[in-house]
Structure formats: C-alpha cells, structure tokens
Design a protein that fits this description.
Layout (H helix, E strand, L loop, with lengths): L1 H6 L5 E3 L1 H6 L7 E3 L3 H12 L8 E6 L4 H14 L4 E4 L3 E4 L2 E4 L7 H13 L4 E5 L2 H6 L9 E4 L13 H9 L9 E5 L3 H13 L2 E6 L7 E8 L4 E6 L5 E6 L4 H16 L4 H9 L9 E2 L8 E5 L4 H17 L4 E5 L9 H12 L2 E4 L9 H16 L6 E3 L3 H11 L5 E5 L6 E4 L2 E4 L2 H13 L21
Parallel strand pairs: 1-2, 3-7, 3-8, 4-7, 8-9, 9-10, 10-11, 15-19, 16-17, 16-19, 17-18
Antiparallel strand pairs: 4-5, 5-6, 11-12, 12-13, 14-15, 20-21
Helix pairs in contact: 3-5, 4-9, 4-10, 9-10, 11-12, 12-13, 14-15
Length: about 475
Amino acid sequence: VAPGAVAAGAVAVVTDAAGAELLAGLPVPLLVVADVRGVAGRLAAFVYGEPAEHLAMFGVTGTNGKTTTSYLLDGGLRRAGRTTGVIGTVQILIGDQVVPSVRTTPESPDLQAILATAVEKGVQAVSMEVSSHALAYGRAAGIRFEATAFLNLTQDHLDFHADFEDYFEAKAKLFTPQYTKRAIVDVDDEHGRRIVERCRANGVEVHTFSVKGVPADWSAQDIDLAADDSTFTVVAPDGSRHKASAGLPGDFNVANALAAIVMLAVSGIELQTAIAGVGDVHGVPGRMERVQIPGQGFLAVVDYAHTPDAVQTALAALRPLAERGHGRLRVVVGCGGDRDKAKRPMMGAAAVRLADEAVFTDDNPRSENSADILAAVTAGADAELAGAAQNYRVVADRAAAIAYAVAASRPGDVLIVAGKGHEQGQEIAGVKKPFDDRVVLRAALEASAGTGAAAGSGAEAEGEKGRSEQ
C-alpha cells in the first residue's frame, strides 16, 4: 500500500516501528509513531482543512438507540432551519444526498473526507453515531462536538473489548474536553451515572435526563404509548412543562427523543422548535418499523434489536399493545456468528422471558455453524424456563421462520422480527446474499393473505451493510 501511495504522489508515510523496518527503502520521509490510528484522525483533519470546525457536530453513543437518536436530532436541526448531515449505521446523508454506510463510524480519513464534502455542500450541522470501536481506534479524533449524548451501556461487543469495563472506558473517552463541549446523559442507566461523575471530574458541562423518575435536570412525564407513536411531557430544569411526541413506539424511544431534545435545547435551539422537530420524525429505517398490508389484523414490526437488553426493551414496549388487543406477543430472533458469544444464551433467555412465543432462527451465521449458534441461544432459553413449558421453536431458515410466525399470528397479536433491522443482506459461510427482513415479512404477510408470492430472501434488496459497531 505505501509504495503505491508514494507512486501516486504521497510525500511522507506515517507508520509504526515495525512498518518502518519494512519501508526503509522508500524515497520519502517516514514519520514513526507508536499508534498510527491514534494520529490518523488529527492528520486527516489537517489535510482536509479542519472541516469539523465549520460544522455544528452532535455525537451520540450507547449500545442501543444511536441511530434513532441521530435521526431525531436531524429532525430538530432541520426544523431549526439548518442544512444537515447524518453519519451512522443505516446510511450517510449529506443534505439530501445518500451515501452507503459501511460501518457505524467511518475510518478517520473517510470521516474527515465526508465532513469536508459536507462543508462544500453547505451543510451546517451533523448528527453522528459514535461507536466504541471508533473511540478505541481514534476515528473521531479531530472533532470536538457541540454536544454528545450517552444513552445506555449493555452487553455487546465483548469479542472486541477485553471485558465490559474496557467497553465502558471506550465509551467514556467521548465525554472529555478533547471531544465535547457538553454532555447529555441518561441517568436511568447506572453507567450513565458514572459518566456524569467523569464529566464533572473532567470539567465537562453535563446535563442529565430521565424517563423513569430518577432525579435529573430534564425528565419525561405523563408518558402515553401507542402502537405507532408516543406522547409525553418534557419537564425542563426550570420546572416548565412542554407537550412533546415521538413518532415511534416504545418508552425507550421516549428516552431517545428526550435525549435529542435536550441536546438541541442546551446547544442553542429554541426548546419548542426542538420538540416540534423531533416530533416531525415518523420512522427510522429498521427501528420499530411497521410492516402492514390491508386487512392484516395484527401488528408486525422489524427492529434492529440485536443485544439482550435491546430484545428485552423491545418486547417490554410491545407487551402492552398485545395485551390491549388480547393477543399474543411473538418474536423471531437469532444471533450473529463470529461476534460476542457470551450474549447468545442471554438473547434466548430474554426472548422466552418476555414473549409468548419465540422463534429462533439464523441472523448472520458468517463463518460459524448455524446449529452451534442456535444451540447456545436455546441453552439460555431452557435455563430461563427452568422446566416450565417450552414456548419456543427453532426454524433455522430465516425466511421460513418469518413465514411461520406470520401464519401463527391472529388478530390482536403482535409480531416483531428482531436483529437485522435495516440490513439488506445475510452472510452465511462467507457468502452474502440479498435479504431484507422488511421485504421478506411483507411477502409472508401477502402470501398468508393470499395476495402475493411466497416469502423469499427479499432479492429486491440491494447491498449489504458492513460490520455493525456500538
């Protein structure tokens, strides 16, 4: 790579000590550093003219909720008249231009190039997901955010981080003066309360929020949850009360909405404008996304929930809707291969604990044997049931699992297909094939109603999202 870069005009190479030995014959200076990734962000920012300094940057981190909160932020910024950009898991938006997203937070040279393009296009504010991988690798170096939000921290990515504390420390890096001017923290999460302590110790301005009655600067009260949206009252630090809404179901989306509102309000956006803009957002790709056909009779949604906590939270949010319709709550879910193995039994346990029926299926097995992954998931389910009647079945083929769940659903029921959300491919044995849960679910609904073809892989979908990071 380095010789090719030099041939293309590079005037110097940044490398580490091992690389310096291999590249000793190059006719350009070698800048030897201990951590190449650690300096790449600052170098890239310099090369591209420090684009983040010309943008109002908003960063969101947490195991769950980053994508939704970023889209809600974007809604508020647009309502305030800003030209906006969004960088995250689903896609990259530069104004109204859509760019495919390979990872949650791009590598630092790519990220700085994207920000430079945003400046050229007249973008004024950017909402950005910041993953623990990005913080560990220094991808966000060269950016100082107007505001950053901490949403939550739960089991995930222990295939990458040494342990849970290492995962926390990676997230905590975002809440230092190097990265942020002000922090907005959910203190319903115990790790959020630790982040507050870090902020105060580091001299970072911090604003807390809660949707569960924990003492905080901002809170959501009078929460009313419906199948498609939620309404609530924002209680500001001065005690004033403001009606608000989130165009997404679930109390966790009230938390996401409140996070976005607070980020905007403490960064100079008028509170009523922030509330209205967040309420403008009625749907985020693959996040509690409703799929329906005429005469369906039951609620069916696709969600990205792919951690034990996310599955539990999603099911807890949908349970009242099933009870309201005197129906059953059913979940289709699996676990990805070549990733955090410790969460597999926990996923199975969460599914059988909160659903009336769980259908365990393939997610992205990648290089692993599907049966081994499903065995770990069902082991967790069996342990949770502790001899009680089995309320799950295994259907390895994902399209068949979705078709079964649709056929089993009756009026008043609620069905959630969890784990892949917006993804448009499935990786099995190193081969990526088109697969979109939304397309497959719709086909299954139409087939069950006798109005369409049998559910397949969703071959209409194109592309394949890369590795997800939290």
